[in-house]
Write a structure and sequence with these properties.
Strand content: 25-35%
Number of domains: 1
CATH topology: Alpha-Beta Plaits
Largest sheet: 4 strands, antiparallel
Radius of gyration: 10 Å
Helix content: 25-40%
Strand order of the largest sheet: 2-3-1-4
Bound molecules: copper (II) ion
Structural class: alpha+beta
Length: 67
Amino acid sequence: MKTTFIVEGMSCEHCVKRVTDVLKATAGVKKVRVNLKTKKAEIDHADNVTADALKAAVTEAGYQAVA
Ligand SMILES: [Cu+2]
């Protein structure tokens, strides 16, 4: 399964790495791509992982997951 959303609040590669790491740390996540310019996060994950769980991980790291 694939989930894509926009992450607001990232200003540098450090933020990208932080967001990537928290998403990767979420159980069931296989692959994560985060783009600083487009703010897009693309996550490949197991079927039982919800978009809400992924967004919550981003929010807990101090960023905003939208749309
Ligand atoms: Cu940063």
